[in-house]
Amino acid sequence: MDKYLIKNGHLTDPANGINEVMDILISDGKVLKTAVEISENDTDAIGADIINAAGKVVMPGFVDLHVHLREPGFEYKETVMTGAQAAAKGGVTTICPMPNTKPVIDSPARVIDLIKRAEDAPVNVLPVGAITAGQEGVDINDIAGMKEAGAVAISEDGRSVMDTWIFRQALHQAAEAGMPVFSHCEDTSLVDGGVINAGAKAEELGLPGIINAVEDVIAARDIILAKEAGCRLHLCHCSTADSAIFVEMAKKQGLPVTAEVCPHHFTMSDDEITEDDGRFKMNPPLRSRTDVEALKSALRDGVMDVISTDHAPHSAEEKSQTMLKAPFGIVGLETSFALGYTVLVKGGYLSLPGLVMKMSTNPAKVIGIDRGNLAPGKTADLVIADINSEYVIDSSTFVSKGKNTPFDGMKVTGKIEKTFVNGKIVYSCNN
Ligand code: DOR
Ligand code: ZN
Ligand code: ZN
Question: How far apart are CA 364 and CA 375, in angstroms?
C-alpha cells in the first residue's frame, strides 16, 4: 500500500478554499487527511514515506480536456503511453484524447478499445468520442452508447460539423444522453487555404491568412444551437476576442456554455512569428495582440473557464516544413503549467488558486468527474511544483514523441517536481 506524508508544502486547493502551508497524508489512493501539522508519529501516518515539500506548492493534478494521442493509426507521432508520460511530466493527471485517430473513435467498441490501450498508462485517460462516423459530418454516432462505454464528451475536433441541421440533431441527441459537446469552431468555407492569422505578419511572409470570422461564425452558431437543444457546450481553443464576447453573452443568459483557452493563444501573438516555420503553425492560429489581451482578460474575468493544451504532436520531419506544407498543431502537455504560471500568474491575470481552477477544478466539472479537489476521501491525484524555479524550455527534454513547440528557448517559471495519480508517484523530477 502506498502511503505518503507530504509535509510543509503550500497547499493550493481552491475547491476547498485552502491556500496555505499544510501537511497532506495520502494512503491507498485517497487523501486521508490535511492539517496544519500531521506528525510522523500520527497513528494514521505510520509507515508513510515522508516527502518534504517546504517551499513548494501542492495542487490537485491538472485535467486536460483536449489532447491528441494519435493512437491508433499515427503511432509515429505519439502513442497513448508516450502522451500519458508527457502528461505525468506536466503535472496533468487526467487527459481527454480527441477522436481524430485512424480509425476515428466513433463507436462504443472503439471507445472501449482506446480505454484498453490506456490500461497501463500512468495517468487517467478519458476518451472523447466523435460526433459523426469517420468525422465525415453525415451520420451521427451512438452518443449514449459511447457514453456508456466510457467517453466523457463528443467532439468533431480537427473540424466542425459543417451541416447545421446535422449538428443540431447531434446536439439534441447529446442533450438527451447528458453528454457535453466540445466544439472545434472553424467554418471551412471561410478558411480559403489560410495557414496563419490574417494580418500584417501573413502579408510580410506572403502567406494566406485565416480571418477571425472562421472561428467566430461557428462559435456563435454553436451557442445558438446549444441554447435551442438545451445541450452542454464547451468551446475548444478559443483564439479570438469576439469568441470571448459570445461566451460572455451565453453565460449572461444562463446557458450551460463553457470555454477553453490554450497556453499558446494567451502567450504568443502572430507578430512574434519570426519566420516561415511550421513550428508556429496550429489551428486556430496565433492571433493578434488584441486577441491575446482579450483572452487573458477573459480568463481573469471568469468568461473563459478552462486552460487545455490541444497537445498535437507531429514528427520532426512533418513540422520542419514551411507553413504551407507542415500540419497544424503544437505539443503542450509538458509546458502548460509553466506558461500558465509565467504569463497569467506572474503577469497579474490570475492568482495561483485561480490558475488551479482553470487547469484542474473547472475542467473536472465540465466532464463531471470527481477530481480537482483534495478534500479527505478524494482520489489522490496531485502535483508538487516549485514556483520559484526558472528555466528555459528545451524541447529535446520532452518525453512526448512530438518536439514541435514555438516556445523552445523561452524562459519560464514553475517546474513540476512530482505527480501522483491514484496515490502513486507517476513522475519525479530528477534535476
Ligand atoms: O492544431 C491543431 N492540431 N488543431 C486541431 O484542431 C487539430 C490538431 C491535430 O489533430 O493535429
Ligand atoms: Zn481543434
Ligand atoms: Zn485539437
Answer: 15
Q: pLDDT tens for residues 13-51?
A: 999 999 999 999 999 999 999 999 999 999 999 999 999
Sheet holding 62-67, edge to edge: 62-67, 92-97, 124-125
Alpha carbon distance, N-terminus to C-terminus of the chain: 27
pLDDT at 362: 98
Length of the chain in terms of residues written: 431
Name all residues whose Cβ lies below 6 A of ligand 1.
68, 100, 157-158, 184, 282-283, 310, 312, 327-329
Q: Which ligand is nearest to the CA of 236?
A: 2
| Residue of 160, 183, 235, 282 best suited for mutating to test ligand 1, as the one with most atoms within 8 Å of CB | 282
Closest-CA residue to 87 (of 122, 115, 128): 122
CA of 291 to the centre of ligand 1 (A): 20
How many C-beta neighbours within 10 Å does residue 302 have? 13
Q: How far is CA 349 from CA 147, 159, 299, 316, 354, in A?
A: 36, 31, 8, 34, 9
Whose alpha carbon is nearest atom 7 of ligand 1?
Answer: 158
Record the cell numbers describing residue 400, joined without a space.
Answer: 512526448
C-alpha of 280 from chain center = 19
- Give dist(CA 146, CA 50) in Å, integer: 42
- Which grid cell sits at 165? 441541421
Q: Which residues of the chain have pLDDT under 70?
A: 1
Nearest to 134 by CA among 102, 111, 158, 164: 102
Per-residue model confidence (pLDDT) at position 168: 98
Strand order, beta sheet including 257-261:
128-129, 153-155, 181-183, 233-235, 257-261, 306-307
Q: Could you tell me the distance, in angstroms and rounded to a whole number, from the CA of residue 236 to the centre of ligand 2?
A: 6
- The rounded Å distance from CA 264 to ligand 2 centre is 13
By most ligand atoms within 8 Å of CB, the mutation choice from 183, 261, 286, 310 for ligand 1 is: 310
Q: Residue 430's pLDDT is what?
A: 85
- Residues labelled as active-site residues: 310
d(Cα 139, Cα 137) in Å, to the nearest integer?
A: 7
Q: Which residue(s) pair with 10 in the sheet?
A: 21, 57
What stretches of 130-191 adopt beta strand conformation (E)? 153-155, 181-183
